[in-house]
Design brief:
binds zinc ion, 345 residues, 28% strand
Length: 345
């Protein structure tokens, strides 16, 4: 496997050739400068050999298997590192979240992987399907990656996705709930420089991968949505140039040249509530092609279920990630109101 990867420099190909697991982990050096460890299928860690590094960066993709643009973006960066075109100044772990689902061309095999973190994988029926097993392993890899370094470290986790539907803001990021911690202006301006100028502040703990890293490791962690889902090879990668450039600067320790914080360059939203499904007949009162961030006025009937109407409660609320087809008990849509900068550092 080591020779396969050394020759092809295509980590995604290696991952897809072994979608369940690798028969063995392996490690090697790139020249004198970088140590490489492959821990599992879709899990590769790069450590610069110079001692000055201060950041531990996790870049994850394919937590949803059909969200291909982030997979192509990460694999391109991995290939550049393996080819020694990029020399890292910081530790980086790339995670290809759900290789079996990529194989399948689907969001997941049995269960939405991004609802299984923070221990949810082991609750109720336990580790009974591929996603629960993978969520458990991914948590262990993040733990091993972050916990292996001592001293003052800057931990970062960008979990990269694409969305099912169109969006009024093409690229946006979800900032997990951070009890006791302010939101970081610097991180927000980093994302803005990546072309992600819309930020959603979450209002409560969740079971997502980014919340797991944020809450347990004090990482600057985000779920980042980079546009609409397209099949592998059909993504217009020019839409991700800024993102790739900023990630490259970050990983190689170059000056990020972030602009001053500027509200005018940003759209800030606060999640005001999550609408959960209580009955099988849950139905939205808007058509399937309504875009993310579409706003509805107070009193508007957003959905119906069990003979009752779900109404808009605030003056205006915008929707994001509507999905009526989730199991009963799960979230059907997140509701947003506009936010100011009062909760930023
Ligand atoms: Zn996703």
């Amino acid at each position: 496997m080591f020779h396969e990867l050394k020759q092809s420099k295509d980590f995604l190909a290696l991952t897809l050739a072994h979608p369940q697991y690798l028969s063995e982990s392996f490690e090697f050096d790139l020249g004198e400068h970088t140590h490489v460890e492959v821990w599992d299928t879709g899990v590769i860690v790069f450590s610069p050999k110079q001692l000055k590094h201060s950041k531990d960066i996790v870049l994850s993709c394919a937590v949803h298997g059909n969200e291909t643009a982030p997979i192509e973006l990460c694999n391109a960066l991995i290939t550049q590192i393996l080819s020694e075109e990029l020399k890292l100044a910081q530790r980086v772990m790339f995670l290809i979240g759900n290789p079996a689902a990529i194989h399948n061309g689907t969001r997941f095999i049995d269960e939405n992987l991004n609802r299984l973190f923070n221990g949810t994988h082991s609750r109720d029926e336990g580790l009974c399907n591929p996603e629960r097993v993978r969520a458990h392993k991914l948590e262990q890899y993040v733990d091993r990656f972050y916990a292996s370094q001592s001293g003052e470290r800057h931990r970062i986790h960008y979990d990269l996705h694409t969305a099912i539907r169109g969006s009024k803001h093409e690229k946006f990021a979800i900032y997990p709930y951070r009890p006791g911690r302010k939101y970081s202006r610097e991180q927000i301006m980093f994302l803005e420089s990546c072309g992600v100028n819309t930020i959603l502040f979450h209002h409560e703990p969740t079971t997502t991968f980014s919340y797991f890293s944020s809450e347990n490791y004090r990482a600057d962690a985000f779920t980042i949505e980079l546009g609409k889902v397209f099949p592998m090879g059909q993504n217009d990668m020019t839409r991700f140039i800024a993102m790739k450039e900023m990630l490259t600067l970050l990983m190689t320790g170059k000056d990020l040249q972030l602009p001053e914080f500027d509200l005018k360059r940003l759209n800030l939203y606060q999640v005001c509530r999550s609408v959960n499904k209580h009955f099988d007949d849950f139905e939205f009162n808007f058509t399937n092609d309504v875009e993310n961030f579409t706003a509805f006025p107070k009193g508007y009937t957003l959905a119906k279920e069990g003979g009752k109407a779900v109404k808009i409660e605030h003056e205006f609320e915008s929707i994001v990630f509507p999905n009526a087809k989730v199991p009963v008990g799960q979230r059907t849509v997140l509701m947003l109101k506009t936010a100011d900068d009062s909760n930023l550092d």
